[in-house]
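User: Just a sanity check before I run the rest of the batch. Below are the structure tokens for the first item. I only need the designed sequence back.
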């Protein structure tokens, strides 16, 4: 690159500072695929002969094999993955390799590699989400009739099924999968062929190249194409949201695994001990996931900060997009893998959950709605039941241990049938609105997800 314009070599310290091959080498498959497609376009345009194109294809495949086998030597003085591969190719096949860079720039080449990488990782991460959803669904199926308290403000609120909680997590991760599909639409745009920022007088068939590389559309503005990293920021947001949902799931499981709750227990394989306290069994995999989410947020902020004030088209600042991108991808893929393996080994303590769900205060709303069904306005019923709870608390009694006379003093609408209210399973049976945790709804939603996930496995790919 420096031949011609520069008379002196770059300072060694500048080379070390500016090189990116130490981390962008992992784009090699995408870089080679892009070069093979570009060579085909050059051949169609008459720039390369068929023999030269065959040499390029063969040489690039050999280089790819060497990289995969760990035999390729990366040279930091060549700065990046693009120049390393091109230099190695030219050394092997001569002038044909030197022709390969015709009508392209490292600017559109870098944008291409990044888009191909993000496209591939979207598929990998969607697959990881499906594995996690399958693990969650298995827990729901195994414990479909286990009743537990639902919480708001970390206070017992109303009874739910443990399976309903698991299904809630599946819904959240499905939104993550949907977001990735949306992101794929804006990533799936070919930038190659726009050159540094204004194309080339050598006009290549970019639609042909898009077909070769599996892109569904071609960029329409050369300036925008080389400077656009929206798809990276959007992808990092998607990964941050996956981290958020994993972190919230981690928080619940961590709390539930304490002796104070005792609802679940992590297996020994996914727990750690204390260097000092022999009795400890710590949920470190969940805690680490909760902690790693902060890095995912930081990576998103990093790319947003990098691009927020860049002049139009390409600037070298954009080299810094890869650290954040690669780290977030690696972090999320590892977390999804750990959770998909950890959840099937989770022990659910049915007795502890159902004992906690037997708290009659969880049915206070049911008691108010019982009055509403008899004609009382809900706000009045809410006040009546609130006073009954206060009275029970003063007398150190459970709500269902108040006498019928005491209840009738609060409202004459209470009758003998009030005793039927204090049954969590009966309460859940009445919660039949769409999305509510009735046994029928939970079973139907489990069936829905089982059918969808089985279809995914049969197809071999996560559905878009």
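Assistant: Here's the designed sequence for the first item:
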């Amino acid at each position: 690159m420096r031949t011609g314009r520069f008379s002196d070599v770059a300072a060694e310290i500048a080379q070390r500072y500016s090189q990116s091959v130490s981390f962008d080498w992992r784009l090699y498959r995408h870089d080679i695929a892009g070069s093979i497609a570009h060579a085909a376009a050059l051949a169609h345009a008459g720039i390369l002969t068929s023999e030269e194109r065959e040499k390029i294809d063969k040489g690039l495949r050999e280089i790819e094999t060497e990289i995969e086998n760990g035999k390729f030597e990366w040279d930091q003085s060549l700065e990046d993955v693009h120049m390393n591969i091109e230099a190695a190719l030219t050394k092997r096949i001569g002038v044909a390799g030197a022709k390969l860079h015709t009508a392209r720039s490292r600017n559109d080449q870098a944008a291409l590699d990044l888009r191909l990488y993000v496209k591939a990782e979207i598929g990998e991460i969607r697959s990881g989400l499906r594995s996690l959803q399958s693990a969650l669904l298995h827990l729901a199926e195994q414990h479909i009739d286990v009743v537990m308290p639902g919480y708001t403000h970390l206070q017992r609120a109303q009874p739910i099924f443990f399976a309903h909680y698991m299904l809630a997590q599946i819904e959240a991760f499905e939104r993550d999968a949907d977001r990735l599909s949306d992101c794929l639409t804006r990533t799936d745009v070919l930038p190659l062929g726009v050159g540094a920022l204004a194309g080339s007088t050598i006009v290549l068939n970019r639609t042909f190249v898009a077909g070769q590389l599996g892109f569904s559309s071609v960029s329409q503005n050369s300036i925008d194409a080389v400077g656009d990293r929206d798809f990276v920021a959007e992808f990092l947001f998607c990964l941050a949201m996956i981290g958020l949902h994993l972190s919230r799931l981690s928080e619940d499981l961590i709390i539930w695994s304490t002796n104070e709750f005792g609802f679940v227990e992590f297996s020994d394989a996914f727990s750690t001990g204390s260097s000092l306290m022999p009795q400890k069994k710590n949920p470190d995999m969940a805690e680490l996931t909760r902690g790693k989410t902060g890095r995912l947020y930081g990576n998103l902020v990093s790319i947003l900060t990098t691009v927020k004030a860049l002049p139009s088209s390409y600037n070298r600042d954009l080299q810094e997009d890869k650290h954040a991108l690669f780290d977030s991808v690696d972090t999320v893929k590892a977390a999804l893998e750990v959770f998909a393996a950890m959840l099937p080994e989770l022990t659910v303590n049915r007795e502890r959950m159902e004992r906690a769900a037997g708290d009659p205060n969880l049915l206070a709303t049911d008691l108010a709605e019982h009055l509403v069904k008899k004609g009382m306005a809900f706000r009045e019923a809410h006040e009546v039941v609130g006073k009954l709870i206060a009275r029970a608390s003063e007398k150190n009694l459970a709500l269902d241990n108040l006498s019928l006379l005491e209840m009738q003093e609060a409202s004459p609408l209470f009758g003998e049938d009030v005793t039927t209210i204090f049954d969590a399973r009966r309460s859940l049976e009445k919660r039949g609105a769409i999305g509510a945790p009735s046994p029928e709804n939970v079973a139907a939603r489990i069936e829905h997800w089982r059918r969808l996930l089985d279809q995914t496995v049969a197809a071999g790919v996560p559905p878009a």
